[in-house]
Write a structure and sequence with these properties.
Blueprint (H helix, E strand, L loop, with lengths): L5 E5 L6 H12 L9 E5 L5 H8 L5 E5 L16 H6 L4 E4 L2 H6 L4 H13 L3 E6 L3 H5 L3 H13 L4 H4 L3 E4 L13 H18 L2 H6 L2 E4 L7 H5 L6 E4 L6 H8 L3
Parallel strand pairs: 1-2, 1-8, 2-3, 3-4, 4-5, 5-6, 6-7, 7-8
Helix pairs in contact: 1-2, 1-12, 5-7, 7-9
The protein binds 1,3-dihydroxyacetonephosphate.
The site of 1,3-dihydroxyacetonephosphate (13P) has 14 residues, from strand 8.
């Protein structure tokens, strides 16, 4: 993917089917179809087909999933494969979200397998990275983010990586109301580009979209999106309110 402006709403485990449909309608009716911003709606699995259907004729709107399994199919009760996501019209999939790392103990090796499945089925992986508060306080945030990137990206060719989106989500900012300052976000996003340059080259590093996530909202999005290396946001809580989500989209 070449570097694009992207705003993605990760609804996490929220909404009913009816609320999901209403939210999509209230968002899409406010958006000018001629803007060049990629908008991604990431609902819970059961609503993906309905949401993808509602977005299918809306310019620059796409649907995404919050996770996929490492395997293509089979006896994995309760799991969802990349192939299934693709078959309901989904275009993106979050991989490596900190909640998957923290609550489901997912590791780098899982992310590699999941991304391989996603790519096989024409999904764009949105690969999430970010440090905990302890890692930042002990000045290990650059080291941790380097490891998170290197351990996974080393398993992918430049061509494969060209289909990725990256999301920097400092764990201490997720759902806490505490946002990274624009200085902290810019510093880390530029650093992430330098790590990508070391792994691949500067052209691809300049082309990859890097989203900021972590208490990004209608009040702080403008300042964050003004940073040179911040290409948009991965929004949690504020994406559940149509007006707030649209204000974030209007913040570029
Ligand atoms: P919040 O915007 O609620 O902090 O969540 C961010 C996030 O985890 C998006 O994936």
């Amino acid at each position: 993917m070449s570097r694009k402006k992207i705003v993605a709403g990760n609804w996490k485990m929220n909404t009913s089917l009816q609320e999901a449909k209403n939210l999509v309608e209230r968002i899409t009716e406010q958006i000018n179809e001629f803007d060049d911003i990629i908008k991604i709606i990431i609902p819970p699995f059961p609503y993906l087909e309905a949401v993808a259907g509602l977005l299918s004729n809306k310019a620059n709107f796409y649907s995404g999933a919050q996770n996929c399994h490492t395997n293509p199919g089979g006896a994995f009760t309760g799991e969802v494969s990349a192939n299934m996501l693709s078959s309901v019209g989904c275009n993106y999939v979050l991989i490596g979200h900190s909640e998957r790392r923290q609550y489901f103990k997912e590791k780098d090796a899982d992310f590699v397998l999941k991304i391989k499945e996603a790519l096989k089925h024409n999904l764009h992986p949105v690969f999430c990275i970010g440090e905990t508060i302890h890692e930042r306080k002990t000045d290990n945030h650059f080291k941790i983010v380097t490891e998170q990137l290197t351990n996974v990206l080393n398993q992918f060719s430049l061509e494969e990586f060209s289909r990725f989106v990256l999301a920097y989500e400092p764990v201490w900012a997720i759902g806490t109301g505490e946002t990274a300052t624009s200085k902290q976000a810019q510093e880390m996003h530029a650093f992430i580009r330098s790590v990508v340059t070391d792994i691949y080259d500067s052209t691809i590093a300049n082309n990859v979209s890097i989203l900021y996530g972590g208490s990004c909202n209608a009040q702080n999005a403008r300042e964050l999106f003004a940073c040179k290396d911040v290409d948009g946001g991965l929004i949690g809580g504020a994406s559940l309110n149509a007006d707030d989500f649209c204000k974030i989209i209007f913040s570029f």
